[in-house]
């Protein structure tokens, strides 16, 4: 049997506490016997875990008893858990195979934690890998699906992945290792069984060593995928600012790398349709959005944003000089006073001042309105607020969160952007001075 993967991937370092997942079938009993026989040579501590799915009545219970008895006879600590896959599948609206897998791996994770095991060994073999690749091909997979079953995934290792089912059966005969047969494996009720019983025999006629060939192809695909993933990771590390990427640089990447960048930042595995929607944002310059697996990404001002911009609506509030005004939508606190202008300088992010005699009626704080216009200080013309936003390359979120001061005659100022010509004060003028404080900074003590 081919055990090269154990050393190649350092699956079982000396001193490891290894939890072997055991169904009682040929593959898992081969793995359990192998690890038990080589435990001293490998320098590992061995434990076993069996999950009884509750799907086949007495047969399933007998398998659990068989595993427990064999482990007890050989002094291997074993944990058995009984589940109800059918009920779980109904609750989650999932297929039986998917439900069984989720419950089984959840159990293995808990058992490993309870026994303080740092490795979970499963008995997937070369034929399983070939079947997985064929199954993925039928679903229209890309390179990731052609990698098949990974030899190592986090703390899960698969020592038999380089061994064929025929080699496993020979090992069982040579070492007189007992096992049980799962009757459900004999039916074609599941997709994997259909591939195993009908597709694999035809492929073996074409190439008797088909499983080994598929594993070589999977290894080559893993190497290619690892390389492309590394290039995508390097790009993200250089260009991602925590919420967005530059559109131009992303568009210049090879599509194989750009698509990986987008999939990674959109949440991992994506359908081809989702990936194509994300890739479409790389072309064009106007604002655009795409819904990708329940989240929305957007193109705006030459960047691709991966954090969905929250909708912000600023409720109108009256500003009364001498009183404090809270704008919770913006985490802002406004303090105001009537005083004399000392200079003509306005820092529109920290403070602004309005010429008192030119204020008409009450000062109201709002967000932007459709059709807003004003005559900005120093521009000599009337401009729409929309054009001022565009000139300053403000994003959609920045436009939504722009705080506008109005009176009965229109706009007085836009925080951080401009002040109306009529509201501008000169040194010595009576003014209303407004100070802006970020309430987040106040509450956390930041300055």
Keywords:
alpha+beta, 447 residues, disordered C terminus, single chain, 6-stranded mixed beta sheet
Q: In words, what does this structure look like?
A:
- By secondary structure, the protein is of the alpha+beta class.
- Helices cover 41% and strands 20% of the residues.
- It has helices at 4-8, 26-37, 39-42, 57-73, 85-92, 96-114, 126-138, 143-146, 165-174, 191-206, 210-239, 247-252, 255-266, 272-280, 385-391, 396-400, 439-444, and strands spanning 17-21, 45-52, 78-82, 119-121, 152-153, 156-157, 244-246, 288-292, 295-300, 303-305, 317-319, 325-327, 332-340, 351-355, 363-366, 373-374, 383-384, 404-407, 410-414, 418-419, 430-438.
- The strands form five sheets. A six-stranded mixed beta sheet has the order 3-2-1-4-6-5, sandwiched between helices. A five-stranded antiparallel beta sheet has the order 11-15-18-19-20, with no helix packed on it.
- The longest helix is centred in the middle third of the chain and has 30 residues, at 210-239.
- It starts with a helix and ends with a helix.
- The model is unreliable at 442-447 (pLDDT under 50).
Number of helices: 17
Note the overall shape.
elongated
Average pLDDT number: 87
Query: What is the tally of beta strands?
Result: 21
Taking the alpha carbons of the first and last residues, their distance comes to 66 Å
How do the strands line up in the largest sheet? Answer: 3-2-1-4-6-5
Largest sheet: 6 strands, mixed
Q: Which stretches are low in confidence, meaning pLDDT under 50 for 5 or more residues running? A: 442-447
Computed structural class: alpha+beta
Helix content range of the residues, please? 40-55%
- Binned strand content: 15-25%
Rg calc: 33 Å
